[in-house]
Amino acid sequence: MVRLSFYGGVGEIGGNKILVEERGTKIFLDFGQSFTFGAGFFVDYLQPRTLSMLKDLLEFDLLPRIKGLYAEGLLERTGIGYTEPEIDAVLLSHAHFDHCQHICYIDPKIPVFLGEGTKIFLECMEEISYSCKYGDHDYRTFRSGAKIKAGGMRIEPVHVDHSIPGAYGYLVETSAGVIAYTGDLRAHGPRKDMTEEFVEKAAAAEPVALICEGTRMEEVERRQNYSEAQVREKGEEIVGGTDKIVFVMRYSRDIDRFRTFYEIAKANGRDLVISPKSAYLLGRLIEDEHLDVPDPRTDGAIRVYYRRKKSGTYDDSDYYKWEREYLDRMVTCEEIRKRQKEYLMELDFYQLTELIDIRPERGAHLIRSMSEPFSDEDLSEEVLQNWVEHFGLEFHQMHASGHLSREQLEWLVDTIAPKKIFPVHTENPQLFKKRWKNAVATRCNASIILN
Ligand SMILES: [Zn+2]
């Protein structure tokens, strides 16, 4: 008997936690945090208590009540006694927080399988962010095509193209047949060949079940989306057509987007200015020889922007240890202000205040290469547009999503042709049901028997 249980990612985008069990073997596919996690019980400074985090979350069933899953120390005061692990493995698809964040609660004795790239991302996040702690784990890294053994199950990770390096789908062998899990994926990025390989392998396995992401499964797509190549083309037009500074906003872990603007900068004889955080991440990612990223320590086209801190004099001691590695690649607001046309600069929303010192010429450009806001009443959007107007910037929106379009999704499901489809990571599971007779409506905290 093969049982599938969904503890997150049902009827919402993100928070995937999928339990697969058979004959005493239990594995979790992802263990993420949903974007709306805790809403309804916690808000602003009303948050779970540090000393009894797990207890406070279990109180409202915000995490599954499963024996042999959580770390011993965290179970104190919860009323759930500690038992040795009853979960054989947790398999992470990639390092986005809605797929991995909640591993911080699980027993360190449970092996966590993940791609090399994912492990580097998790380590970086712990090093550069105070609030990000995943806890100790028995991490086991793999490469695409490896055969993982967990309890009595064999699992094959297959790389996919997503908006973060090191993303994988999984093929889980069970007595009922293969269960294919997509993780998050797209087919319009620079490595769409990896997604194609996943689809090919999944189709060949004639899966009994396909657990499929559906982020962009909508009646009508509400937001503009490009391919990565189109972002390159449109970005090139803007940068090539101006002698003013160009700012760009992107997701910090989207390395494809970094590469796109790095290439645009180089093609136009500009330096790409990045934050110490991005430099640190790139400096770590070059350890993975499968990722083709430039080395910020030596690459002549990359400069690192240091904002003034503490003493205000750019003294080494003003910066965190991990930030200091790139001080010799430093560019300051004074230099940028003087030679604006020589730079293409990454600028995070929370660093907009640097514009006050950089003083961009009127008519300079700001490209938001991220998702458009979900609602018209988005407060940050209003604030951003006020900054744009105040500094007389020209604003551009251009983004390539990390997820399959509806059309690509239909191609993926039809090509794999599974016996049953389980939509996850989507607000519209009913659209799967409408399109495919064999799509199954899942419920959160509920199980389905496969044979
Ligand atoms: Zn993702």
Molecular structure report:
- It is a single chain.
- This protein has 451 residues and is of the alpha/beta class.
- It folds into 2 domains: 2-219 and 402-449, Metallo-beta-lactamase, Chain A; 228-397, Metallo-hydrolase/oxidoreductase (Rossmann fold).
- Helices cover 27% and strands 21% of the residues.
- The chain contains 14 helices and 20 strands.
- A 7-stranded mixed sheet has the order 6-5-4-3-2-1-20. Strands 15-14-13-16-12-17-18 form a 7-stranded parallel sheet, with helices on both faces.
- The chain starts with a strand and ends with a strand.
- The model has no long low-confidence stretch (mean pLDDT 95).
- It binds zinc ion.
- Zinc ion binds at residues 94, 96, 162, 184, 402.
